[in-house]
Amino acid sequence: MKLLSLIVLLLFLCSNGQSYTMQRYTMDNRLPQNSIKDIVKDKYGFIWLSMEGQILRYDGSNFVRYKDFKLNNLSFGDFYGSINNDSMVVFNNSEKKNLLISRRQPKVISHKKESYPDGPSGTGIYKRLVKNNVTVRYVSFIDSYFVQLKTGIYYFENNSIIYVDRKSNQRIKLNLDFPRNRLKRLFVHGENIFVADSRNKKLLQLYRGKYSYVDAAAMYTDPETKIYWQQITGQVFMINHGKIYRSQFSEGKLSLTYLLEYMNIDKEISGAMFYDDAPRKLYIGSPINGLKILSLSDFSVSKKNLPYQDEVCYAALPFGENSVLTQEGIRYYNNRSEKLYKAPQSYDKRYIFWDDSGNLVYRENNSIHIRYKNTGFTKYDSISFDRKEIDGLYKNGGLYMVSVSDRNKFYLYIFDRDNFKKTERIIPCEDNIDTILRYNEDLLYLGGSNGIGVFSLSQNKIIERIGQNLPVKQIIKTKDGNIWLTTYNQGMYLLKDHKVIRIPADKNDFLANAHHILEDKNSNLWISSNNGLFKINKTKILRSLKAPQEPVTYYRYTKEHGFLNNEFNGSADPDANILEDGQFVFPSMEGFVFFTPQNVKAYFPAAHDLYVERAKVDGKMIRLKDDLLLECGYKNADIYIDIPYYSNLENIYLQAKLIGEENSQWINIKNDRKFRLSNTEPGKYQLLIRFLSSETGKFVYKSFPIEVEAYFYQTLSFKILVVGLIILIFVIGIQIRTNFLRLKNKVLENTLVHRDKELQETNNKLKSESDYQKKLVESISHDITTPVKFIALLSQELTQSDDAKTQKKYFDSIYKTSEQLYKFTLSLKEYTELYKQENNMKDEYQIYDLIETKKLLFEEIAAQKHTFIYNFCDHHLTVKTNKNILLAVFHNIIDNAVKNTSDGEIIITSASSEQYVEINIADTGSGMSAEQRTYYSELSRKKGSEHLIFKNYGLGLHMVIQLMMKINGEITFHENIPKGTLIKIHITL
User: Which regions span the lipid bilayer (predicted)?
Assistant: First the structure.
């Protein structure tokens, strides 16, 4: 019998630490195929997988598939290139065209042919070596395998090694016999190549064309060790009988870091491996078995592993520095368990404590069991309560207590220290008791289904009720003196000034069934619940109570982080423990969960790790740049929020809302990471996205513009146009009626008004032109002022004269001037576009005819001032330049001459040669001052409009100078002897 007991005890000594969790993806589970060729992580945080005929991008939740490439061969293989430079290339088998992955997108590029002049023959077959694993085959038809590093290239050919320095192009042949089969043991760290020599138990090291042998851990040279190396990631793994180590090279020394033990890796063919440091995940890709993601856990789960017994755990006590002990006699460490004494399986595991002598006290079969320390807990006594049922057993604040019930009556027994046979006091209670806290020397907090009863030991009665109708599960006092309550299905509370304050719930309300709270050294509260373990900084909660508008963000740990079961257990005493070595221990439905709080990481994405680049509109995938335009009549749109995050998405509180939409609210983004739009009213919106990027609780925000296009009849401009059109029709109707009534009596005046209106409209249109174009329109008004003013003056004289001959004379002058003014207005459109016209006219024009046109316009006006205009230009002299520009120049100069000459004459002459034509316009008027002549002449000689800084001498001549510049002409101003002004216009042929 003793031998059998020994055998049973030995069976219980087992290791059951849970060091990792595993996710598996195959064709049955979201992968398009089971063949994984290579794995790499880009600079933006996304994982890329190469497969047969396609590339996958993984962000922690979803796979994005890229497959429609214009390639003849789609058998993709290994990645190479530079992650830091955002230039990752994946080979296909033909190696004629490759895929470049940059800016989170793959695209086809031409393969750059490389020459390898240092081989034995310039025509050999060369193969780049970028990865080494158990699936690599080194075939004989390849003449040379080469490894390209920053400083040079190593060629492995003809059982030898040749090194070519990149800078000097020097070729060095190493004095080594190196058969090709040794490449299976090759790996690279930086600029160092290592080759394991199993026979000599050393490593061959190659560095810049030199070699040496170095000592290393036996794992490197063990013939049972399998080596994995990938150049683009720089990662090297050593795999030995299921144990996976990561190799690193620092300060000239190799070192191994143990990651985990995965026994199946020896049975499975591993084609690709990648270890992600931040979330501590190991990716293993197989050519036949798909993808496995092994997540290293900061938690350990310890089980008893007894046959035909469950693993449900409740109360336990700290035992030693790093373990706990249950009433079943099982001692749990973080990675194993052992049996200390024989005890039957217990179904009553909720209450246990140490007495003053170190004896184990617990409840069993409606009795109090006391196991004695001095017997190794093998002997025990029992104490029963006649016809009463024990509900709970407590030790708190130096008091030993038991709660009992008797026919719906409840009592609390207080014992004389650890003498359970001597009762000091019996307290009758109205309700059951589930938890007890000794608040101070006088007060006991008794928690039950009807809140907390405050019992005074000195007064021997309940003196206060706190939180009535609140089903209290646990009363926990943290080191700062704050008292926290957990309840049955009603959340957590803070007890402040004898009042209960509700703690904000988590987003899924899992903390409605919180069990126990432990506080670590950094003031973080660790809360067990029926659905995961939660972490939150205490200051966040206290701050949220003062500012309720701030969201309270909890970090939730689940099976994904290493638990066997998300359901923790409570309603016991104690519900959790802090060990001497700093470990926290929480009971769960499958074992005890051990962890050291400061070693448990909370993983968050960086502030910039969010991209809005894809959308699916009515079933069609589109690529986004800076915004999204949804055409009118769209049915639905899915906007993808790409964020590389490899943990529980709920922990970063990824949310989005549409700003500009009525009653817009934050929407939780699910694992598919989509924001859906449907039946959105036309308009411009901002998609506002937020997430947590650290444990501080502050959100990172990013906005993305979205515009929903409207039908034309829904637009505000259309509505304004309709209203404006109605008003316009009404106004036009009134205007037409008014004009009709005035037309008969004011024909001439109406004509002039109409022309003036056209000029004004032309002026308004030209306002959007350059600043000089505006000035040009003003000059047009300036040019028409003289004849219009003359007509108005003659009209006034006509009304005042009764003499028929004089009236006939006035009518004749008005007629001639109006006729020339009419002709001038016919060319007004071309006149107003002078600034836009180029001097590339092909037709020739006679100078005489152009001058005559303007002479006729101003002749009657001059005659009224007793001034005569003479056109002595050569009748046969022609120029091939812009007609309208010349007319505008002549118009302005003759206009100025007429205005400033009375009782005189204006003489226009011409001269020419093979290179130029010169037109002289001389008047005998008041003339220009010397300062004005100098100013305008200097202004003409300065080419370019940037020099036209106008003085207050009038706008017309400035315009003339600018127009002369357009035809590469020159204008100069001189004194006319004996009086007046002489203007010379010089046109180069």
Answer: 711-734
